[in-house]
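Re: beginner question about structure tokens

> Can someone show what the tokenized structure looks like for a real chain? I only ever see the sequence side.

Sure, here's an example I had lying around. Input first:
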Amino acid sequence: MTQPVPIRRPFDLQARLPLLQTALELAARRVPPLPLRAGKLPFGNCPACHHNACGGRPNMKTPGPCHCPDICHGWAAATTNPAVLTSPAWTRVWGQAQAIAYHPGGAGLTVVDLDNADAIGWARASLPATRSVPTTRGEHWIYLGVMESANGVRPGVDIKSTMSYARWLGPGTGTMADLPDAVRALTVKKPSTTVPPTSQAVTVPALAGGGECRHRKPAYLDRGITMAEQRITEARDAVHTTVYRTFLAVLSVHGRCGCLTDTHIGRLFTAAQAKGESVRHCTDAWTNARTRLGM
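And the corresponding structure tokens:
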């Protein structure tokens, strides 16, 4: 008896990968998506871009000039190009992805991430109403406009806009309002009114023979900071421990000669905050590392 010939249905990539379908819909609306792995984290850099060997996206501040076909460089991987989203390299990762995120700054948006009921109550009393999206523990309030991203701007409140990503949880409800000054003011550093205790001061020992500090050479110092940023960015778990150990390593090499500037420290803090660390956690890790080294 002749066996029936199975019907071959056309391969529908988008039907097989629902997250990719969502990504293509976001891209069509000029919202740059990217896949997330377990733990709501971006996929790590490919071997060719490990430790920024590609030379692109220095310090994670720009989305180029790297043209790597893989999903690299965290938030900077987000794209609205459907040819990239459906490329073989990306398709392989979409099949492993656990969730989807987007780059708010790339879409001209700012997300106020409210992490608990108290934060939501503060927003309702202090900020103009706008489009909101329920999250696992709170809400995302979405405004039209771009600003600097920052975590821990107040208890339970993070700002996600430029150089950051937010998880896509649906379009939300309500009319989107323009970004208010009250939100922009959250990232403005207020001048300190207290004098730090003497024990917190860092003593820089004089160099033997009065020679110039070798760490002041831009290439040497910048390479070390870039490698430290990459180590934090590629942490798959135990992020807080990785941040502390990275801070400890940087301080052990560069902390006693006075070559570290606020800009260098800021780069490390930015990398840690992009992995979900709060400003308080970063400050505690930095302080603990200095204490461990007797600084």
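Each token stands for a local structural state, so reading them left to right follows the chain. The chain has ten helices and ten strands.
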